Amino acid sequence: MMASCFPSLVARLLVSFFLILQCVVEGKVSGAVQPEKYDRFTAGFRPPSVPLVVVDPYFSVWSMAENLYDDVTRFWTGRPVNMSGMMSIDDAVYRFMSNEPFLPEESMKQVNVSVFPTQTVYTFQQDGVQLVLTFSTPAVWNYLYSFPVTFLSYYVRSVDGRNHTVRLYYDNSAEGTVSDNSHFVVWERVNVSQNYDTMRIGNFHQNYCYQSNDRIDWGYWFVQVAADPSVSTSMAFTELSRMSFITNSPLPPDDKNQPRPCDDMTPALAVAWDLGVVSPGITLSRSLTLAYDQVYSINYFGTLMAPQWKQEFGSAEKMLAEVNRDELIMTMDSEDDRITSQLYAEGGSNYTTISSLAWRQATGATVAVYNYVTDETWMFMKEISSDGDVSTVDVVYPASPLFLWNYNHSFSPIKLILLPILNYANNETAKYGLNVPYNLSWAPHHLGTWPVCDLPPNRQEQMPMEESGNMLIMLAYLVKRDGDLSFLEPYWNLLSIWGQYLAASLPDPEDQLCTDDFEGPSPHNSNLAVKGMVGLRAYAYLLEKKKETKEAEELQKMDLNFTKIWWLDSMDGLTELHSRLQYNLHDTWSLKYNFLFRQVMNFTDIFTDEDITRELNFYMTRINEFGIPLDDRQAYTKADWQMWVAAMGTQDQFETITDLVYSFADKTPNMVPMTDWYYTFTAELKGFRARPVVGGFFSRMLLNYAVKA
């Protein structure tokens, strides 16, 4: 596993972390997004929140304002995790990031922001100088994925034909390293190599994987720049560092008064560059690297699991010394180009715009770790903002289209996320230190509360048909895509239990919770029944591939009969034929997003294409200004489920629903990381933020890929 996830990494001699000073012909700057790529995005889009440093559920910093300088930068919860930026142009100092105290009152003018799948690009302009600021996070499916880094790249040029003297400034506080700002922090310089100036800051008391709140309380935040005569760094009181830059004085010496509370004379890691003269026709660039060493990321039933990158590098210092910034930026540029070109070809600029934002949000809810017990890579997904659970199956499922569509044969995210769930359900936790027998006849709901996996089955939120169907469907698609059954060898008895549960519980789920549990009870739920029937067919598919043909055929016949009963019990309407919300409720309806994997898996023997066409046509009569309600009970909806439904429609239907979701994201008054639960008349948030379920925006991509395959 290790060799496959990190192919010949060291052999590639990843040295020379980045080139700090580049003077190149304008338009040829390494890492600068080329203008033609912006044409794939809708001009003027205002993201509800802009991802800056979005690596994992703990290393997650956003701009929750229209302009980067309108507010402090924040953790996904809304708590400040401040990063600031200033530029001096001919001795006049402006801020371009944050509006914290001790920053200039005047700001540069922000003229554009674009969110790519792996990079966010801001453009500012002031006094004849343009600044392009790029935040680059390697969220791509290969050995880069687990790297806890974000590169900040600054590109400066004159746009008025004149020479200008320019200086740049960056700092960040320690707020991103503590769960409470009263906690004591420490800071130090780290000897990475003579080529770099590296600082780190972190909690004085390192309590790994301690469960307190959504913010981390251990590990270290690193800031690194290339050693160069034009750069200076400092670890000192924020006010002193900022005022030194504003007055064109040297940064203060390192503060020795430590440890001290994070909010006491707020210590900050600061960087200042003197670019000298910026001449017309020349672009000057500077870079810095932000990294976070969590030391340990997950506690899996008693075993602390370190992030995946440590398996290769051992320490953050070694990683920072060997990672090649320029190579990573080139990879991200290439991936952004590939992904956005495919999105644009499928759905145009609105689809590209919202899906690129969704990519950053969904990948930023996961972490890759190395399991030393079984010598393999695992991944975990956080149910951000709704419960904080670890790898909630009915959160992994709606997010799965992104992770199933865009994958690497040696790094398959959904498989790596499902393995720890399968281990738990298969009663394999004792070897990790905590024996938690799993004795339910259906699949688990989740593993624990982030970052601790320790949940006994009697404390699960029970969703028997929902989670059993989800697990079987995702596993069946992995087998269909990869043609490999071997990873399921230890789990066939488990899968049989789940399959038999579905067979015994259909065609009526009776009084069960489904993933939309926030709506309250919904007995005899016809959409949940679809999930169960597609899940049962997925189990039959797995048996087919295992050459257990007789049982597979019996289950298929049983499932076909269930779908016929479903049609008779759920159909409603005379002039507008459609399916009901519940078998027993006339004059009702709901979005039947659970049909999607019937299409993806090409299960044409259950339900019909006409069933799905009829549903889509009906939904198009229920459109409000910002979307289609989830069902007839409320005016709110789910963005992810709308995009699942859109994926199954005609091109016109797909683009119509996509445009509604785009309009919501652009117009919502709630400036938080994109919610998936909002009102269709006002675009106001109903609940949730930053959840990975927006990976469902890639349903159309997955469906088309699966059909072609």
From TrEMBL:
Residues 118-326 form the Glutaminase A N-terminal domain. Residues 348-700 form the Glutaminase A central domain. Residues 44-100 form the DUF4964 domain. It holds the Pfam family DUF5127. Residues 1-27 form the signal peptide. The keyword tRNA processing does not apply. Keywords: Signal. InterPro entries: DUF4964, Glutaminase_GtaA, GtaA_central, GtaA_N. This is Glutaminase A. It comes from Geodia barretti (Barrett's horny sponge).
